[in-house]
Amino acid sequence: xxxxxxxxxxxxxxxxxxxxxxxxxxxxxxxxxxxxxxxxxxxxxxxxxxxxxxxxxxxxxxxxxxxxxxxx
Length: 72
Hints:
Layout lengths: L10 E7 L4 H10 L6 E8 L2 E6 L2 E6 H6 E3 L2
Antiparallel strand pairs: 1-2, 1-5, 2-3, 3-4
């Protein structure tokens, strides 16, 4: 399942990042968004969602959220 199907307020573990874009992968890594890290969807917005990773909150779009695969 990817992040677009995650429940608000539930903590999930990132399984993998499914992207061919190395720049995007590097960007997510700098946010602390990589395999094995916990991630929580705080809220949903039109066209994206707000997530909590480590000590930060980030607004990501649905395309990016669909590339983040989480464990159910």
